[in-house]
Amino acid sequence: MDYLLGLISGVVGNPELARLVFLAAVALSSVLAVVTFGMLIMGLQSPVQRRLAMIKRGHESLTANQRPVSNLHLLLEQVGRHMGSGEERKTSATRQTLIHAGYRSASAVQVYWAVRLLLPLLMLALSLLALPMLPKLSIALVLLIGAAAAGVGWLAPAIFVERRKEARIGRLRAAFPDALDLMVVCVESGLALPQAIERVAEEMAVSQSELAEELALVNAEVRAGIPSAQALKHLADRTGLEDLRGLVSLLSQSIRFGTSVADTLRIYAEEFRDRRTQAAEERAAKIGTKLVFPLIFCLWPSFFLVAIGPAIIGVFKAFGKM
């Protein structure tokens, strides 16, 4: 507190006025924080307000198998709904990124923007609380630390979602050739394409749960009346795999012209597996280049110390005797 008061006094120039400004800021912040969180918590605890929030988020009723939504989740939804981005194009791009990362709920965009807007404020508050522990700092350095903390809080959710998206797409890409092989076996045994997709989803539920869930969604869309080609196109959009768009096009042509779906799946499974092998070979070829930096910064200093160190000690001893 004394540190912040000293900063304000340095800016204002009058100790009495600085003390009044500091007390007014603390009182106003405390009142606003208590009133805001009190209204939000009381509103979410009210059965009527909670029911209205549940209807707004698209849940008409909760069954016994569904987990009840926590107050924190509803709070983030309301904050994101009021403070999130209003641009339709930006919202659509954000939703697509979240779907690729595995967040498919209707409120994922609102929760994402709420976290992205509240986390910088939290990081800024933590940095201000940590400033008295540091030695005397100038105003410019204090502002720089606050801006850096707010920037970290703003970028951290985006980086986390992007990393999760890349990891999920990588797992789906690695598992899809096996799913195509299983589809070939199912189709050649006499099953139609929707039944083959359902069977593959059941078989891969343990080993590849994410891909099994996506295939189960395809089967659910087909049962709801959506054409198979459109359901597969939705699969490509949800997973973010560009290679699946070619498969969707080939399967659509096979269904339209009556050609063998099994042959199409077999050919594309081989191509998909070849691409996976080529990607693994490419990563293996990059290992030599990536090992240059550890060799330079870790092994070479120790090598020079062992190889040249005794000679340097001998030279120093020789010159010392002279």
UniProtKB/TrEMBL annotation:
UniProt cross-references to InterPro entries, sorted A to Z: T2SS_GspF_dom
Keywords, alphabetical: Cell membrane, Membrane, Transmembrane, Transmembrane helix
Parts of the chain that traverse the membrane: 20-44, 111-131, 137-161, 291-316
Keyword Aminoacyl-tRNA synthetase: no
Membrane found in the keyword field: yes
Stored PANTHER family: INTEGRAL MEMBRANE PROTEIN-RELATED, PILUS ASSEMBLE PROTEIN
Name of this protein: Type II secretion system F family protein
Organism for this UniProt entry: Metapseudomonas lalkuanensis
